[in-house]
Design brief:
Elements: H1 7-22, E1 27-29, E2 40-44, H2 51-57, E3 65-68, H3 77-83, E4 86-89, H4 96-107, E5 111-114, H5 132-140, E6 144-150, H6 152-156, E7 169-172, H7 179-185, H8 190-210
Parallel strand pairs: 1-7, 2-5, 2-6, 3-4
Antiparallel strand pairs: 6-7
Length: 221
């Protein structure tokens, strides 16, 4: 069992990897680029409900996830979601309580999956980044690993009721730092601060888009 994984997390992680390997014939590229310790934001494009478990299953460290706060009120569901390191957020993911929960996980040295687009794509194309991830980067000063998922829209896009056995892949990019912009954000004007948040978000999204599929290296350990 990888270090710091609770039993429920580890078991779900193993089952997810088995499902992705068999039903979806997954490919995982460069998981070694994700730091094994310390705070990190895994910033990925968002095409499907498959994306969060796909991004998390590809790495060997426990990752925190966002989940709608109403799910935590269901009998037994709240306990289960917490055992999977899930963070309750409102349906838009932009509430103050949700941001505090995200920052608490990062400041405690955890990793978390975030989607700069904010919601799943409707047509398979990437959407513009929202500024929220820029705010999180500035407040946490955590490194960002850009992540691109492939094939999840074809496997289980929002227009589908059930997932289909289509190949999927996840590719992790080199960690990104935004120290200079974070330093500027501490003393700049409010209009400039908003620009910084969006500038960081846009740069992350451009880097995600630049990650291309590979045909030669396959990692499914």
């Amino acid at each position: 069992m990888p270090p710091r994984m609770g039993f429920n997390y580890w078991l779900t992680w193993r089952l997810a990897r088995a499902l992705f390997a068999t039903y979806f014939r997954w490919r995982v590229y460069h998981p070694e680029r994700v730091p094994l310790e310390g705070p990190v934001i895994l910033a990925a494009n968002h095409a499907s409900f498959l994306d969060p478990p796909l991004v998390g299953a590809g790495v060997t460290r426990p990752i925190n996830y966002l989940a709608r706060d109403t799910l935590f009120r269901l009998p037994g569901m709240g306990w289960f979601l917490r055992s999977l390191n899930s963070v309750p957020v409102d349906r838009h993911g932009g509430g103050g309580a949700g941001l505090k929960a995200i920052l608490d996980r990062l400041l405690a040295g955890g990793g978390i999956v975030l989607f700069p687009e904010g919601t799943r794509t409707r047509d398979g194309n990437m959407q513009p980044a929202r500024s929220g991830i820029g705010l999180t980067v500035v407040k946490s000063n955590a490194p960002v690993v850009p992540v691109r998922v492939f094939g999840t829209y074809e496997a289980w896009g929002r227009h589908m009721k059930l997932p289909r056995p289509r190949p999927v892949a996840v590719k992790y990019g080199e960690p990104m730092r935004f120290d200079a912009l974070a330093d500027e954000a501490r003393t700049c004007s409010k209009p400039r601060l908003k620009e910084i948040y969006q500038q960081i978000a846009d740069e992350i999204m451009r880097t995600i888009a630049s990650l291309q599929a590979e045909a030669d290296s396959r990692v499914t350990r």
